[in-house]
Specification:
The chain has two domains: 190 residues, no CATH class; 269 residues, Alkaline Phosphatase, subunit A. The longest helix has 26 residues. The protein is built from 20 helices and seven strands. The radius of gyration is 25 Å and the shape is elongated. By secondary structure, the chain is of the alpha/beta class. The chain has a seven-stranded mixed β-sheet, sandwiched between helices. Strand 3, helix 17 and strand 4 form a beta-alpha-beta unit. Helix 2 packs across helix 11 and helix 18 runs parallel beside helix 19.
């Protein structure tokens, strides 16, 4: 009876995951194969906990609590970022402990206190309810192993092999349920293979040529987000007027997933080409190194530098960037800690100074690809501004000033150069900037001749995906569009 109650209640919790399925059926619109996979996952979790504590009711309660946690986390993520929990999110669990400031900073003081108090409750409960009888522990272990074996065999059945062949996260969660979708998507992801290496560029650049690409944290046009023309950014407006090319960058993520945009611009592979790798392309990027801009430019004599004022082990950038052809990595150790009134992260002003210094010292054709961090959320009201929107605006204006500083600094160097500046995703600000159909950010491309003068383009707006921006930049600086 306990097992049946656990299964029934877990399915009801799974039915609460958004987006919800349609009407009709045992569970509204839920696929039977999805419910089968869900049942096996619950059996594994229940069996594992039972193998540890040996107490059947407590094991069932903890398994149900874990399902409730997954449901709440997925719904909270969808409300804030516009998509439910996906299998690749589980790869970030370790990052919570390695880089807690990115995650715990989003919690209030009371939530942090609750987390600290709750942390010892589960092990204390397991110890208190521990049953020394070996039969229950052995039964739990057997159930967990049997469930794992059945999942492995079930995934090979034709009826399940046909499921979720193409990424459709919203639709698949509604059809199959959260746990089943996590299992299916991980399976499809593991089935993908690295692409065939791509040819490098051969066109020789000007011996003093520079290419500066800036991925600016949460950089978006406030006029589009907040609907107030008074919030226009002067730097962005000026850059659009002088741009060789500008437009909307059609990014995939909202409020997060920096690495999706970063990968697209660096590696140039579209979501269709990535398939199930699209959700976190950095998990597999080391096998795609030949596609990265630095690798494609290396044979033509370019030297490439990656700049990011944070721990480069985050997202495994330290390994990925070397695999992609970067000759040097500039991390947080190069920058002084921000002053108390500057916020949590290295400022965009400090980034601009470092980037221009690297450009001035470049003795060969050089690509500098930089990823900023100052405008990383969650945003807090500033001393002179009383809302989250004002807190965001203070920082996005700093990013806008960085754009002007780089424009003027590159012009002063008097070298042929290309400046690419774009936002990685829109900010997620509760009640103000929320997930919707519009997710784009701005991008601009400025070009400078050997005298430092801005080279005018056609000035037309061209909307691009991050992968298309990669190919546009590659075509501009190497003459190779593919």
């Amino acid at each position: 009876m306990i097992s049946l109650a656990l299964l029934a209640l877990s399915l009801l919790l799974d039915a609460c995951v958004r987006p919800r399925a349609g009407r009709g059926g045992l569970l509204p619109g839920r696929n039977s194969a999805g419910m089968w996979l869900h049942s096996l996952v619950i059996a594994i979790v229940f069996g594992f906990i039972l193998a540890v504590c040996g107490h059947v009711p407590a094991s069932a309660a903890l398994a149900l609590a874990l399902m409730a946690l997954f449901m709440m986390v997925s719904n909270a993520k969808r409300a804030m970022l516009g998509e439910p929990l996906v299998f690749s999110d589980l790869a970030l669990v370790g990052a919570i402990f390695k880089h807690p400031q990115f995650y715990l900073s989003a919690l209030t003081r009371s939530q942090k206190a609750l987390l600290v108090m709750a942390a010892p409750v589960v092990p204390a409960l397991v110890w208190w309810l521990f049953v020394p009888s070996w039969q229950a522990h052995l039964a739990g272990l057997g159930l967990a192993l049997a469930g794992a074996l059945l999942i492995r065999l079930s995934l090979k059945l034709p009826a399940i092999e046909r499921l979720a062949r193409e990424p459709d996260l919203e639709g698949d969660v509604a059809r199959y349920g959260l746990l089943a979708t996590l299992i299916l998507y991980r399976r499809r992801w593991r089935e993908t293979r690295d692409p065939v290496p791509v040819m490098a560029a051969q066109t020789l650049p000007h011996p003093q040529e520079l290419a500066i690409a800036i991925q600016c944290e949460s950089f978006a046009d406030p006029v589009e987000i907040f609907g107030d023309p008074a919030l226009s950014l002067p730097g962005l407006a000026a850059a659009r007027e002088q741009a060789w090319q500008w437009g909307d960058l059609l990014v995939d993520g909202f409020g997060a997933y920096t690495m999706r945009t970063e990968y697209g611009v660096l590696f140039g592979r579209s979501e269709a080409e990535l398939g199930f790798r699209r959700f976190d392309p950095y998990l597999t990027a080391r096998g795609e190194g030949s596609y990265a801009l630095p690798a494609r430019l290396l044979a033509a004599g370019w030297r490439s530098l990656f700049v990011h004022p944070h721990d480069l082990r985050f997202y495994n950038r330290d390994e990925i960037m070397h695999a992609g052809g970067f000759a040097g990595l500039v991390g947080e150790e190069r920058f002084a800690p921000p002053a108390p009134d500057e916020g949590r992260y290295v400022t965009d002003k400090a980034m601009a100074i470092e980037i221009l210094d690297l450009a001035a010292k470049a003795a060969v054709p050089t690509l500098v690809f930089a990823v900023t961090i100052e405008n990383h959320g969650p945003w807090e009201p500033h001393a002179s501004a009383g809302s989250l929107t004002d807190g965001y605006m203070r920082l996005v204006r700093n990013s806008d000033a960085m754009l002007l500083t780089l424009r003027d600094g590159l012009a002063a160097l008097g070298r042929p150069a290309t400046l690419v500046f774009y936002g990685d995703h829109r900010p997620s600000i509760p009640g103000v900037s929320v997930p919707g159909a519009a997710r784009h950010t701005p991008y601009v491309i400025l070009r400078f001749d050997a005298g430092g003068q801005i080279v005018p383009g056609e000035g037309q707006r061209v909307d691009l995906t991050p992968a298309q921006l990669h190919h546009a930049v590659l075509g501009l600086i190497s003459g190779q569009a593919g």
